[in-house]
């Protein structure tokens, strides 16, 4: 008798059907295979399939219209092999299969489970498997069925449940094949359970369970992914000793790639040669690792040689090969060559991806060629390749550095319209660009907009704003922004403190700056050379040279090397006090320490000696300056004019 359902009840349940469909697509298994959030209850599956039949008026899945079981199996076969099977349709097929008597062959179920698995509908596969096992004692899974279910559970990161399916497999008198055990092994490796994976691997060998070269390749890849290249290498050597199998390229590829990542380039090349000598044919993955590794370490010519070897063997480069080469050329600032390679890539029929374009766009942006980068962005979208946040951030950063903050804001709006949401780097870049363009109000507006996209301002955001406020001498707002950081539990860093210290010192608030410096140290944030130089400069301008000298000496005590700015600041301070000989001592110390004096240091010192009427010393300093290769500027020339005038007066 055909099951009847009250139409009003069905209408009431329709929202639940949609929710249930979504749940199948997104849910994960609970701790057991009977977990409610993984599988559909039998009544709901029945209701769903009734609703499904009412939706498809031709009722082609209704077994009452297809009594011939073979026709149903053919229909399942053709739909599954088409690669266009939708979840709704699959559920209808499943209901027809499970209700047919006698039950269709397990082959039909396997086709359905396999097609859903290939479309990543793993929760649906596990749910159907459970319903099949519970609803019909006629259902007899085979090894293929179990392999598909185990694979789905492993993809859902429920490897523990996959072992319970293995137990069921044994219960049905079946024996796992190499594919079963390889899937379990891969699941353990993927979740990082390498101890358990190694135990299973050893058990497979010791108990003479079926295995193949992929068993070795899987465990080798697992160890490489876990950063344990040496263990992977030992397993590769075990294959040499095991005469039952020959190593495949999949055994070598993970190790070659890991060796490059470990910086052991020559070892990777040596292993590649061993592989060739063993008669193992490399593939595009092998060459991609070689080319990428060599390019990473700047061995461009060797990378080209392996690329030619690859072509000689008839192996066509793929998008990854070209992308690695283009990225390497861009990093070496060979942008024109990179563009030529992109054009070649397209001519060869290899379609670039977002990674390929990002390398070129980033390189053009770093070279202040944002207009050309914009053309590549347009080219990219016209080819159906969606830009990502990396693409847009590179463009935004370039526009802001070029002083085109308004253009950058327009680009961000276009980015959001395309569904790419800004991140903290995006906002920090734009806020910095707006601050540099003195568009303070727009920068604050962006700070307020961050929460609209669930982006929290970080220490960089606040540091940018505080620095901008300080440069505009808006110290009250800068201090308020600094205090806001603590309210939001954001810890200022050395950059934040240095910006605020600089603002206070430039505003003549040296006492407040000292208090802030003490707070900084008490927070275990250690000043760097720039921080100390801010205070050295402030003390020098105030004539507090003892304090300035003390901080200068502290740089050396902290193991730092005073730089040109530190020395120049101290020289300027002593000159302002009229202590020209002490300033000259600092200059000589600077030279002896290998810090190259700049023109400002010499000009400051020469001017100071002229003021105290010690022209001879000023002349010696000018000669020293020219001797070390510094070119006099208009300030130097003015002082030289003064010296000549003084000498002319002396001759009268």
UniProtKB/TrEMBL annotation:
The keyword Repeat applies. Coiled coil: none annotated. One of its GO terms (molecular function) is mRNA binding. PPR repeats lie at residues 142-176, 177-211, 212-247, 248-282, 283-317, 318-352, 353-387, 388-422, 423-457, 458-492, 493-527, 528-562, 563-597, 598-632. The keyword Lipoprotein does not apply. Pfam families: PPR, PPR_1, PPR_2. Keywords: Repeat. Belongs to the PPR family. P subfamily. This is Tetratricopeptide-like helical domain containing protein. It comes from Parasponia andersonii. The lineage of its organism: Eukaryota, Viridiplantae, Streptophyta, Embryophyta, Tracheophyta.
